């Protein structure tokens, strides 16, 4: 028997598997996903490795093979399925194996506090010297913590006992039911499914019963009852003895969805995400692994939850960019969910009121099963009005707010109904300029302007750099300095001037940084302790407030002006989603303020017309050969020295040119990134379009393997959501 072992499996740079012979006495205990001790290198130092495969033969001569010395774990810390998922991610995203494994290995593995060292009863203890025998028998009577005084003082002896197969790691006893409440009273739905919901649910159930991997796009307008379809699909899967992963785009949406699902499913629902306390996350991990919970809900990291007998994956708001990791490894959790569904040969539901262009294209082509909910449940979509801010300025309005929006806010407050004001930019003012010399206050680490915050500081929203704001130009010492533009702080301040008696609350990443702050703010708004909620995109999706009947979009052009081919898609999605918060139980209205009132993304968003937007956007995508008419990889090279970054990208370009004639690809660049410097790292990039996914994967992995310029780091971003 041969074990395939990854050494230093949590090191992102590791990209190799080594074959080790499994001695007969370990054959019954070794498994994929368990850790082992092996000797490594010419020095034969003893190192820890992870078993990622087991096979019967190897190309290496047996007399040259080293043997596994000991099996460390009592149980596998990752499943065979998760290992397969890691290799799928490694291949698709051109990752190193260590990067891919780091995603599926539970975070508590590196935390020594949760492990006990336990002794296994074994005849070999008779051959121990007195010191080892004494230590072994002591641990046999009572397991010791890996952080205990005994373990630390006897480290070498303990390793010897491990190597003799007499010890193993086991988890300490934890209460695995903290995430769930027992005997919850179940709430029955107070309405029957609409005809559209029935049709969608029946299609999902048919796909489930047929078995096999299938993508199902649940395309339903805001308020059309997608959540109810999700819940009934979950109930059906549970009845069939299956587990479910239910993904949401934001942690802030998780408690609300947990409550909705738990009210109907009961105590077999748990939350799983990266912001949980380590013990809570361990409890969730154990509950999922031990089948104490059959529904796991959470954002991006929930896709890696160790559920057993997985039967269905649901991705709510599948279009959301938050599913894509902004830092290495740059995976997209929606794509990973599809990989996991394919490995398990099960259906996956992708739900959205504004599907991604690519997914809707696949649904139209018949590659996905398309289920549509075109109508709100017993309610109409809100009326949407567009205000041309150019005209407002020409007619003498110098306010951030249009006259129409101010009038509608006044009417709403008089009726005792709530208002949401949306601006996707935090802080007070995004730009500070010296009007004497024209200097723009810039981050010292990034090629981005500093944002002014009312508390008296300037902050970079890319790297977090802060400096005191003194109102003096750092270049010419002039005091003729002015802030331009508006952020959520400024909106909050100015709306209080217009409506002095209104209770105003702001919700952005500055006000929700503390634990549970998001839930406390939303609770205040839900319980009508707040009249006007000002916020960024975290308030634009998934939230349901019965008395919210007016939404004001302050600057609809922020995303529209981004130098990215998805800018119009993002604009349409965000406007449609935030508009969907209005009028969910009472007639609603939406006011969109823009300097581009004729742009098709804004016009079609105001009409709730996805089909027309899709048709127009696809014309542009086809002409420019952007996805779904191509597959895109962004190769980015970063370095602290500009010339090193430039040399690195030239190295990538030279490799790409070698394969240009063999592959149907188009190379754009090299060039400076739109944001050239972030965190003191200079950035150059090359954008490459491919006709076929296989071609893209092959070339991306070739570049990864051949890139050897050590003075600059290479980032390979497969299917990037932006190229900034």
Would you mind describing this structure in some detail?
With 724 residues, this protein is an alpha/beta fold. It contains 20 helices and 30 strands. The chain has a seven-stranded parallel beta sheet, with helices on both faces. A six-stranded parallel beta sheet has the order 16-26-25-17-24-23, with helices on both faces. Strands 2-1-4-3-5 form a five-stranded antiparallel beta sheet, with no helix packed on it. A hairpin with a 6-residue loop joins β20 (457-459) and β21 (466-468). α1 packs across α2 (97-104) and α6 (195-210) packs parallel to α7 (226-239). Residues 176-182 have low confidence and may be disordered.
Produce a short descriptive summary.
The protein has 724 residues and is α/β, with parallel strands linked by helices. The chain has 20 helices and 30 strands.
**Number of helices, counting only DSSP H or I runs of 4 residues or more:** 20
- Specify the oligomeric state: single chain
Structural class assignment: alpha/beta
Strand order of the largest sheet: 11-12-10-13-14-9-15
What global shape is seen? Answer: globular
Query: How many DSSP-defined strands?
Result: 30
Uncertain segments of ≥5 residues (pLDDT<50)?
A: 176-182
Report the major sheet.
7 strands, parallel
Residue share in helix: 25-40%
Average pLDDT metric: 90
Q: C-alpha Rg, in Å?
A: 28 Å
Distance between the termini: 49 Å
Beta-strand fraction estimate: 15-25%
């Amino acid at each position: 028997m041969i074990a395939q072992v990854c050494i230093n499996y949590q090191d992102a740079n590791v990209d190799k598997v080594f074959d080790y012979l499994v001695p007969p006495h370990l054959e019954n205990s070794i498994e994929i996903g368990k850790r082992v001790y092996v000797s490594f290198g010419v020095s034969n130092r003893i190192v820890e490795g992870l078993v990622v495969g087991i096979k019967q033969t190897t190309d290496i001569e047996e007399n040259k093979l080293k043997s596994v010395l000991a099996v460390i774990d009592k149980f596998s810390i990752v499943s065979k399925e998760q290992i397969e998922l890691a290799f799928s991610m490694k291949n698709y995203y051109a990752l190193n194996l260590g990067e891919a494994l780091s995603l599926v290995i539970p975070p508590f593995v590196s935390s020594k506090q949760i492990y006990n060292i336990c002794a296994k009863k074994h005849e070999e203890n008779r051959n121990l010297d007195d010191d080892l025998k004494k230590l072994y028998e002591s641990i046999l009577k009572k397991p010791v913590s890996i952080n205990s005084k005994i373990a630390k003082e006897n480290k070498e002896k303990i390793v010897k006992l491990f190597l003799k197969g007499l010890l193993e790691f086991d988890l300490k006893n934890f209460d695995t039911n903290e995430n769930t409440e027992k005997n919850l009273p179940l709430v029955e739905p107070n309405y029957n499914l609409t005809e559209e919901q029935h049709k969608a649910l029946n299609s999902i159930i048919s796909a489930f019963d047929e078995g096999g991997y299938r993508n199902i796009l649940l395309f339903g307008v805001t308020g059309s009852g997608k959540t109810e379809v999700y819940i009934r699909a979950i109930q059906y899967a549970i009845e069939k003895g299956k587990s479910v992963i239910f993904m949401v785009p934001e942690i802030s949406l998780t408690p609300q969805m947990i409550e909705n699902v738990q009210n109907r499913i009961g105590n077999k629902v748990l939350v799983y995400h990266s912001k949980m306390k380590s013990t809570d996350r361990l409890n969730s991990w154990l509950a999922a692994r031990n089948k104490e919970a059959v529904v796991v809900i959470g954002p991006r990291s929930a896709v890696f939850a160790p559920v057993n007998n997985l039967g269905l994956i649901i991705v709510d708001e599948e279009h959301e960019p938050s599913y894509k990791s902004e830092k290495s490894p740059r995976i997209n959790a929606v794509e990973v969910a599809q990989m996991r569904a394919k490995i398990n040969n099960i259906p996956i539901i992708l739900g959205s009121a504004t599907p991604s262009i690519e997914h809707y294209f696949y649904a139209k082509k018949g590659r996905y099963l398309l289920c549509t909910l075109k109508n709100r449940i017993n309610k109409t979509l809100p009326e949407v009005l567009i205000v041309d801010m150019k005209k407002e300025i020409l007619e003498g309005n110098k306010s951030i707010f249009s006259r129409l929006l101010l009038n509608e806010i006044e009417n709403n407050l008089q009726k005792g109904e709530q208002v949401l004001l949306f601006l996707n930019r935090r802080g007070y003012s995004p730009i500070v300029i010296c009007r004497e010399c024209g200097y723009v206050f810039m981050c010292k680490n990034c090629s981005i302007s500093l944002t002014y915050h009312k508390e008296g500081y300037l902050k970079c929203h890319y790297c977090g750099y802060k400096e005191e704001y003194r109102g003096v130009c750092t270049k010419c010492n002039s005091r003729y300095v002015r802030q331009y533009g508006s952020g959520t702080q400024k909106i909050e301040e100015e709306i209080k001037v217009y409506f002095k008696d209104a209770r105003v609350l702001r919700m952005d990443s500055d006000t929700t940084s503390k634990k549970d702050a998001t839930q406390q703010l939303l609770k205040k708004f839900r319980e009508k302790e707040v009249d006007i909620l000002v916020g960024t995109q975290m308030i634009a999706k998934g939230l349901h407030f019965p008395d919210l009947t007016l939404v004001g979009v302050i600057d609809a052009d922020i995303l529209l002006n981004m130098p990215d081919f998805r800018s119009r898609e993002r604009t349409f999605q965000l406007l449609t989603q935030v508009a969907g918060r209005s009028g969910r139980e009472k007639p609603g209205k939406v006011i969109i303020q823009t300097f581009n009132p004729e742009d098709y993304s804004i016009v079609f968003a105001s009409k709730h017309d996805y089909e027309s937007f899709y048709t127009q956007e696809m014309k542009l995508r086809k002409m420019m050969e952007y996805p779904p008419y191509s597959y895109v990889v962004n190769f980015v090279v970063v370095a602290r020295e500009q010339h090193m970054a430039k040399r690195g990208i030239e190295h990538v370009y030279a490799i790409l040119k070698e394969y240009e004639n063999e592959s149907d690809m188009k190379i754009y660049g090299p060039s400076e990134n739109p944001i050239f410097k972030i965190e003191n790292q200079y950035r150059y990039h090359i954008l490459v379009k491919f006709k076929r996914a296989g071609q893209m994967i092959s070339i991306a992995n070739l570049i990864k393997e051949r890139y050897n310029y050590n003075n600059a780091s290479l980032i390979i971003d497969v299917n990037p959501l932006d190229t900034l």
